[in-house]
Design brief:
The structure is a homotrimer. Helices cover 32% and strands 23% of the residues of chain A. By secondary structure, the first copy, chain A, is an alpha/beta fold. In chain A, strands 1-10-12-11-13-16-14-15 form an eight-stranded mixed beta sheet, sandwiched between helices. A four-stranded antiparallel beta sheet of chain A has the order 5-4-9-6. A three-stranded antiparallel beta sheet of chain A has the order 18-17-19. In chain A, β11, α6 and β12 form a beta-alpha-beta unit. In chain A, α2 packs across α10, α6 packs across α10 and α11 packs across α13. At the A-B interface, α11 of A face α7 of B.
């Protein structure tokens, strides 16, 4: 099955439901950049995608970084003297600053305050905060909760552990005809945040399933990794694979109601950049951003010594919606249709990457006579040409070994599928041959 | 005489009348891609332009194509049982689908209908249709005519012949100082359609006359050929000439009331493209189109194995006016002033191509002192410089052997004539020399 | 002291007063392209800038030009028969056409008229006119004055001398770490015109003073020269220095109320062009012009055989304000704040040129861990990054030896100072090293 056949066969409504169920299943787990939350997440994903789980010990040097102590948490709360949990980890794992060191103490509100984080402008929402690389602890709560706290003493408890262990990530490898690889990466380190990034985790996992069913030109590598340290760890341990990566996508925030946003690779004109721009243009309203060195793991893939052709596909970009990194990024914030549409967009981009080829016209001097082969209308004098005939003329005109199908798509304005089909027909009639190398 | 002297000497009103008379003379002839219509057209043009007529036998292989059987027609009609010609070739040669095979039969309206072509949205006009490469027959008529046809039987007659013969085209060669050539091409295969393409046929024929009177840097080759098969035939038989073609223009639809449209060559930045864009910009409102592989014979000249620097000059582009390929493209649709303006635009483009040179300043370090040579105003302190002095400064500043006059025109925004004059003056004063090679 | 330290330490209000005083001091002097007016101007500037005065004898060949006779003037008038000076050089030195030959005669108004220059559209203002290279004489006056002249005879006197002498110019050289030079040039040949060019003369002179106090990467050469012939003379005598000029600015018209205008060098993408565009963009409303071969001495510096990377900084460009080259360009037309702002803009441009470097990240694969060095916020999850951290990420991402800081500035949109500071910090932490060569 080709990727285009696959796309045609997908029931998007059913797909949306499955993706949403996956997000809902993973949502309650308290993930971090290390620890059992990631392990449990990967374990559950194995039912969807055949991923291998890697454990990298605490203390391993990865480029300029070191794999940190492993963090796990069982419970956390702030309790008033009446024994009421006024902040309770069991209600939302966002309540604890991620990677908080253990603490059990009695503190006045005044001394507790520097450890409390709120969003004064969004008084009902709990922020998501982390402190991976500085030993510290804290609680996140809504501004309303904060204002309701009475003066006085509180029992503060974070039942966490920060101890030697390992960093866990998942990896899927699907071999193709070529050793050249397409890399797909998503971060799995955020706790109960649905769009960021369970949406992309679900899309990536189902993508693995679909890619397993098609005949692949490229080999595919799909990473489920903690943000930053996970990408650095993977890159540090897989330097020999890096040169094989021909195209790549970081996936994040693919379930919200917003339009697509594609952030270009550092190169800016990589084939994946051009493929994504073409696909999103066909899909309608969208945004294209130039590369910048802030964001998700494209930061690492596009560092100057690697400079990989890796872009990022999102819907509303991180930081551009108020729900970003708050408790409002919950199960209501993501939509089945958006999840399914995101997976379909990924497949459309991959279809371009898979199908992009360069051809040589076998009749480079003047047009070949399409009519005698039944490829051209027989009544002449018409004002406009049928789309497929126009596409054949474009392909023949640019099949000089220097224009790939994507080049032809860009110059002609025709959709990739139409151009690809035209090329296939012309090949069948011996009018076109794939260019060597 | 230089081409600029020529342009200055032309009486455009008289020229417009002559061009229009030429169109009117050729209009009634029923032309096709082969046959006596083309022969008679070329014979009449010989009084204007000294063209050589070539006959290429049916069956000759020309690249992927074969020269077809020759088609001629004497009469055609659809007659009702009262003996009235309800469709009559003698009234308009558009009534017969061009290249219809002979037929003589009695048919019911019902069985006749699949052979009838109309324009339902333009109910008074007869469409122009062809069937060159599929043996078939048909009639074109107005929607009003069609609706007036009564049920019943009709006598259908197309007194045509489709038999071995030849394809006919005309060619003019005007040698210049250089063996390098400028190609001008127009199609002569359309029957009674005035703008498409008798307008361009007349312009091309008179252009030959004018070019014969000037001192030419380039050699010129002007082709009067049937569309598509004619261009393919000429290219196939003249491959040794192709490398000499430095610039080229396909001419079509030059008599209607519309503004100029220039369609760029496949290269997009050929000198002829830049010259045409400059000239049309000077002339006022106009349109520039990127290359596409549909249209007229630029399709063949710009096929990937030839990739000639050949653009197309038109007024309203084919397919963009309702009159296109209908009986409404008659003698009223073309205007003498538009025909003359088109020829003048061709000359202006050729003036740029003829006059474009690269120079070296003989005083490249600092400006030479123009004042002591009488080339500069003597009273200083003025706010603005006279146009010719500004042009001299531009030419001197860019005469580094890497900028042609057309480059200087584009960078300075000055008209080509002004820049060319400035260069000529500077050469006379020894301040400039033509760069070698 | 670095140039950025210097910029921070300047009291702009006091600077504006000093620049304005300098303009006022020089305003009454009657300057020309040669003669005592230039000598006196340079003598007074020596109290501000340590400039060397050069005298080049009349008759010296300088490229295609010759150093002209020296012109000096003591008095000039047109007197009516009642003994009243109706035009009087003592009231404004603009009244005499600059470089007028001596004359003493009695003439009717009718015979005098061809020697009188006015601005009919600006009837109250005296124009500024010159006749350097044609022996001639004339008077400039307001249209109102002209209209008030009664018919009859007048005594005409120009007590000038045109005799062998020399052309005078001033030059300042400030050595830096590198032999590579930055050239700054202004013309000192205009008589009582405040903006054109005493504004730029004052700015250039004070710039010398400031540059003398900083540690300089580049060597600086500041020229105070008569327009055109002065630039040609200097270039002709200093051809061996020309290859050392890495960047340059022509300064003119820097005191009027208008926004900044930067005219690009002939190259169009020289570093000085990009630096100036960046600085003016940061400063707010401004205009950038493409190079043209008319204007001030950039014409000579950018002649094709030199093609130096020299742009021009002005406020309202010459010829774009009615006051240009008229008596309305007086002491009221320039403003202390504008003068000071212009000098600050020059320093800002020079700061970019001085500070532009290319670096290599010492951790090119993935980001280095900024957090463990205290260079990164410790609480994660925030929506937006602090400006300096963002700047560090940009510098690290583009520190591949192929992007200079100015490249990074252009791509990131961050101000140069922020990027430069980020690079400095990263160097201090060993994360960045300057690229060789």
């Amino acid at each position: 099955m080709t990727i285009d056949d696959l796309r045609g066969a997908i029931d998007q409504e059913a797909l949306g439901r499955r993706l949403y169920d996956c997000v809902r299943d993973l949502y309650p787990i308290c993930r971090s950049i290390t620890g059992d939350g990631v392990r449990e997440t990967l374990r559950r994903l194995q039912s969807v995608a055949p991923l291998t789980v890697h454990e990298i010990p605490t203390g391993t040097q990865v480029f300029d970084w070191t794999v940190p102590l492993e963090w796990n948490i069982r419970d956390a709360y702030v309790m008033n003297l009446r024994g009421e949990r006024v902040i309770d980890f069991r209600r939302s794992n966002l309540h604890v600053v991620n990677y908080s060191v253990p603490v059990h103490a009695r503190l006045s509100l005044e001394r507790l305050r520097p450890h409390l984080f709120t969003l004064p402008d969004l008084p009902q929402w709990i922020p998501y905060r982390t402190s991976y690389y500085e030993e510290s602890w804290g609680f996140c709560l809504s501004q309303q909760q904060l204002e309701a706290l009475e003066e006085g003493d509180y029992e503060v408890c974070i039942d966490s552990s920060l101890a030697p262990g390992s960093l866990t990530y998942g990896e899927c490898y699907l071999p193709g005809e070529s050793m050249d690889e397409i890399l797909i990466s998503c971060h799995v380190c955020h706790p109960s945040l649905a769009n960021d990034n369970l949406s992309a985790v679900a899309v990536a996992a189902y993508l693995v399933g679909f890619l397993g069913r098609i005949s692949r030109h490229y080999s595919y590598r799909v990473l489920f990794i903690p943000g930053t340290i996970g990408a650095i760890t993977w890159l540090s341990r897989n330097e020999r694979i890096v040169p094989r990566i021909r195209h790549g996508l970081v996936l994040t925030g693919l379930g919200d109601a917003g339009r697509f946003t594609y952030k270009k690779s550092r190169r800016g004109d990589a084939v994946v950049d051009r493929a994504a721009v073409h696909v999103l243009r066909q899909l309608g309203d969208h945004e294209v951003q130039d590369f910048s060195p802030y964001g998700y793991d494209e930061r690492q893939f596009c560092s100057p010594g690697l400079n990989l052709p890796v872009g990022r596909l999102s819907r509303t970009p991180h930081g551009c919606a108020p729900e970003y990194h708050t408790s409002a990024d919950g199960l209501d914030y993501v939509r089945p249709t958006q999840l399914a549409g995101s997976l379909m967009a990924c497949l459309a981009i991959l279809e371009v990457l898979e199908g992009d080829r360069t051809y040589l016209s076998q009749n480079p001097k003047c047009e070949p006579q399409l009519g005698k082969r039944g490829l051209y209308h027989t009544i002449g004098g018409l004002t406009r040409l049928p789309v497929t005939e126009m596409a054949m003329l474009w392909v023949l005109n640019l099949a000089d070994g220097e224009h790939s199908l994507l080049d032809i798509v860009e110059r002609s304005g025709c959709p990739f599928g139409v151009i690809r089909t035209a090329a296939t027909i012309l090949c069948e009639f011996g009018l076109l041959k794939e260019a060597a190398g």
